[in-house]
Amino acid sequence: MKITFKAAGSEDRTIEVHGSLTLMEAAVRHGIDEILAECGGACSCATCHVYVPDEWLAVTGEAGGMELELLECVEARRPGSRLSCQINLSPAMDGLTVELPPA
Amino acid sequence: MTEALQLERPAHVRPEQFVDFDIYAPPGIEQDFHAGWQKLHEPGVPDVVWTPRNGGHWIVTRNHLLDEVFADHTRFSSRVILLPKASGEQHNLIPTTLDPPVHRPYRNVLNSSLAPRAVSAIEEGIRDIAIDLIEKVRLQGHCNFTTAYSEVLPIRVFMTMFGLPLEDSAKLKAWADATTRGDGSISMGDALERIGVYLKPFLDERKGKDGTDMLSRIVNGRIGDRQMTDTEALQMAVQLLIAGLDTVVNFLGFTFVFLAQNPEHRRMLVDNPALIPDALEELLRRYPLVTIGREVVEDMEYHGAQLKKGDMVATATPLGGLDPSVNPDPMRIDFKRAGAQHVTFGTGPHKCPGAHLARTELRITLEEWLKRIPEFRLADDTPLRYAGGIAASIVAVPLVWDPASTRAA
Lengths: 103, 409
Ligand code: HEM
Ligand code: FES
Hints:
The complex is a heterodimer of chains A (about 100) and B (about 400). Chain A has about 100 residues and is of the alpha+beta class. Chain A has three helices and five strands, in the order ββαβααββ.
């Protein structure tokens, strides 16, 4: 499956992934450097923040619980904000495009 | 007599929830550690079962329940994480047996040293260690992979990250082993004390300075508005030794036995090393090896089970990746499997902070080994021996190959 990352001021990056990764793990593995993923996916650092566009939110789901609490304190929060370590990739997400927050 | 007592069913456990299952010795462990867990996935077995073994405890058998029990500290506490509970009570290590919010600041101290950026910075160092170990055995045509490679790599990586002298590796490894499985030569308490005495001068020397090695970051870590204490720093170091060595050692064992026994899969990776990361994810799904637990915070009804405050729930990661309801035909290894799910590194606040480091060590091992020793098999004179435990293992992995088939790369 393919996933595209968009960031202001740089070209779109599309990565190809298989298997059982979270969106954060896929990004880290493919060198999407903006995803710092400091806590390794424990939902406690918010350095894996991405924006999921409206049309994909039904597939990825929306933030809940601990993730929502953590998002309260991130800068540049938007309605589609998600922590990418809390999104388990599934075949239905083939073609997903997410945006990275401003640096 | 104790056996009879041990096998009794407590009143709050329903008859169909009662199973006789030893998480440290699943059925058939003499031949294969992973196969026996499938018994708990057979039709008719409830998603939550109770076994009288290891002090008596619940087992959640499905990937989504494991995910929940690992992550939901409001219902399932990390105060005790080892079974049987009586020995788990003795085991207090930072940050593993702390629940949020107390857990968070300690965990943050570890994160900076294990985050992808920090791991990238030492990747070439890890590669050098790997190459060095492989070259030592390449022309010899055989080795005990466990002692020659998998036991050595993670401790050397640890020494590098902590900025400790490489020549002390073996010594520290022996003490770390004694804290978890002790061969009797030194007791657990003794081993902990020796690690403490060994690390003390390094802790003192680095305190108050701005070193960027992991030990410096730990001693200078901030817990709220105070400094980390020496005792806490030492506990964190020990926790890292316990959590970051055997797991990698043992996973490498399962991986190399698989590759030795499955030449078609192995050759796919030799011919196309770009496939290694995907292959690794599938191997992580297929060979989960950690079995720990959580303590029930209050009486509750959970998927048909009456959990009582203080009961233990085993979180056996093999039951995640091998759950046929999320990963069809779970025993089959398919490097291109799509949408697989597992909890091999746990989930939630305690999700393994070393996962990226582990993946990096494993990937580099496969890249460098397969490039140099593409053809190998198990020495056939010794049957494999499996050992259950908090981190399951294959006791020794004797490999043989033809030196003429190797390459200096
Ligand atoms: C294949 C290798 C590994 C596996 C399968 C593994 C598995 C796990 C699992 C399942 C947990 C969750 C424990 C819980 O929820 O109570 C965990 C936690 C942990 N792991 Fe790993 N691990 C591996 C490698 C590593 C490495 C290389 C390191 C460090 C250098 C490491 C350090 C830790 C630490 C410190 C924790 C406790 C985190 C916390 O309590 O917040 N692990 N690991
Ligand atoms: S990686 Fe830390 S919150 Fe996602």
